[in-house]
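Hi all, posting the design record for the shared folder.

TITLE: backbone redesign
STEP: 1 of 1
STRUCTURE INPUT:
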């Protein structure tokens, strides 16, 4: 699996230079994903924690799932704290394969945010998938009033546990930051971090 990640990183030139071998950077990012801190990984490889942070978030550029058949897609969002401000992370996961189809951060949780997210999800789906969401009112406009190329279903439990099980390790990973993202983060940096997290998750599926 690591060999495949290294190959993709080289092919897409995720890292501009080879002063540190791509294989070492990907391995460091993978160890961070598994639970070590930036500082712990940096000390292990003899590099700064900032370097490890940059290597990890660079993997966000590889999170580009190809359009595919996704019969049932489970969608949910969670709230994280960035400099005492709320940021929302949205995720869409294939019910059958557990692949993350799309993940995105936004500064709000409005009907427009939900619509923009769902449109991107549907761009990565062939046919008419079933979109499973909770009963949050921010989904009403896009799923009930607009003619999107999907079916939809509202659930409180059931299939929604799939995306919640993905958010569980996501939130545990954030706890390394004392329950919030580091100082001077932004919703854009949360977005890149989440995409890197999703990319490594998909590689392990």
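Okay, here is what came back for every position:
SEQUENCE:
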């Amino acid at each position: 699996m690591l060999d495949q990640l290294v190959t993709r990183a080289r092919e897409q030139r995720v890292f501009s230079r080879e002063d540190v071998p791509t294989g070492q950077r990907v391995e460091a990012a993978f160890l961070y994903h598994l639970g070590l801190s930036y500082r712990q990984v940096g000390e292990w490889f003899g590099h700064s924690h900032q370097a490890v942070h940059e290597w990890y978030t660079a993997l966000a550029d590889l999170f580009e799932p190809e359009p595919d058949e996704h019969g049932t897609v489970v969608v949910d969002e969670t709230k994280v704290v960035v400099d005492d401000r709320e940021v929302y992370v949205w995720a869409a996961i294939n019910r059958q394969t557990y692949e993350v189809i799309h993940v995105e951060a936004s500064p709000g949780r409005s009907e427009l945010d939900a619509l923009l997210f769902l449109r991107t999800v549907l761009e990565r789906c062939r046919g008419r998938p079933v979109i499973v969401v909770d009963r949050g009112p921010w989904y009403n406009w896009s799923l009930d009033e607009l003619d999107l190329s999907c079916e939809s279903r509202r659930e409180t439990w059931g299939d929604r546990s799939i995306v919640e099980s993905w958010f569980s390790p996501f939130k545990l990973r954030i706890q390394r930051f004392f329950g919030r993202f580091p100082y001077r983060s932004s919703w854009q940096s949360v977005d890149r971090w989440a995409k890197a997290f999703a990319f490594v998750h998909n590689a392990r599926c």
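COMMENT: The longest strand covers residues 72-82.
Let me know if anyone wants the other runs.
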